[in-house]
Fold:
Amino acid sequence: MLESNFMRTFWKLAMSVPGLRLFRNNVGQAWIGRSRRNSDGTVTIDAPRAFHAGLCAGSADLIGIAPMEIKKEHVGLKVGVFVAVETKNTKGLTEEQDAFLRFIHSSGGVAIVATTEGDIDKLLTWQPGRPLDPDIARLAPRKGRKSGDFPRS
Structure:
């Protein structure tokens, strides 16, 4: 079985695990810019610039989050927590960004919007069970679907 086929098979299987949400993380580079189609069928990209996709070189094919209930036997263990930081200037969140951040928060991860350098305090003071970052609600889309609806893939 090709690796790509196995990845899709495993992804579908993993999505049946309650609470687990995985996302495809394609890592690579492409070229973007103004494109034009030539008469011979080729495409020329004017003013090309590199576009890097994915988290980072070497990052996993599937990334995500799984909720974990902390029990007595976990005391003293380190538990990794997924962190999602959406940086914004004056624009609000897209519906997709809003849904992603709310999903991460509802799954026990860290989900914040940073609009200033001072928002680093949100990361430094994060605690499990903390309420949703008020900037997520403040910058949420004003119309469309219900906030927090997040597609399974």
